[in-house]
Amino acid sequence: MKDQNLYNYVLQHADSSLILGQRLAEWCGHGPILEQDIAMSNISLDLIGQCRMWYQYAAEIQDEGKSEDEIVAFRDAWDYRNVQLVEQPNGDFAQTIFRQFLFDTYSVHFYEMLINSKDERLAAIAGKSHKEALYHVKWSGDWVIRLGDGTEESHDRMKAAIDELWSYSGELTKPNETETKAFEEGYGVNLAALKEKRDAKIREILTEATLEVPESTYTHEGGKDGRHTEHLGYILSDLQFLQRAYPGQEW
Amino acid sequence: MKNWPLWEIFIRSKAGLNHKHVGSLHAADEEMAIQNARDVYTRRNEGVSIWVVKSEFITASDPDDSDPLYEPAKDKVYRHPTFYDLPDEVKHM
After folding, report:
1. ipTM greater than 0.95, yes or no?
2. Which among A39, A142, A146 is the nearest to B39, CB-wise?
3. What is the pTM of this model?
4. Is A142's CB within 8 Å of B26's CB?
5. Is A10 exposed, middle or buried (0-12, 13-18, 19+ CB in 10 A)?
6. Of A53, A130, A158, B25, which has the highest C-beta tally within 10 A?
7. pLDDT at residue B82 greater than cutoff 90
8. In A, which residues are within 8 Å of B35 by CB distance?
């Protein structure tokens, strides 16, 4: 292992993109309308594409000859470092939209700032991913506004989604040891500065959607250090089945 | 969503070319129509510009009028500029 902290930092972001991509993929064939079904599949594929760049870099840093697939398929839940938000169930469309919105408002600013990382690989991953994240946040933000400022039912569902997911929002911008060190060493993002931008964006969109920003700042945390909700194990059993049953299998 | 209007989608495949009709889709308003068109019709790199127009604003010719409308043009070959010798320097004709 060349650099354990860099490895953990890369893995955190790889895992969050992968798990959210997998969750969104569950919508494939079940979207409310064909056009949105495709939109969610597109975003899912963007996220899977992003996580591949992260995992490939992780494999290089780890330097044990493992492939990106092996890193994904042969780790158990406690070795996954995704934030707890992304493993939360799809729920109804409003819940999926709000989970996505909370993630997108983070990732769009994360990649925007990571472009200035002193690590060239991270900067390159950020450059490519930022354009995708700009579209994602436009999509999810527009839907938050449409549903919030829509009918009575869509407003209520959006409100329920906020109640359900708000306590998973803060983990994204609350630095753990890995992120603090990454920032100090010049390759990671300053999460305090990111939080300011993200909070402003969330407030702007929720206000336009005639929804209230919850006052609570309580947040679940620990996903980034391997502590997860009950959902992750089920996701992994789906995601990892093929490689576990037929190790080394390729397309 | 049954009530969402139908939109006709036009995509320009690259700068300088014209927008071409590629299909139709449902969306609540023009902004969503653009986004849906982006997701449905440009995901394989098909375009650089999108036009959307509500299907109800398209006026179409009546298929029953095909004969009087199009038949008369068929035997007027002299309307095609095929009787000129083009210099080799002239391209894209």
Report:
1. no
2. A39
3. 0.89
4. no
5. buried
6. A158
7. no
8. 39, 138-139, 142
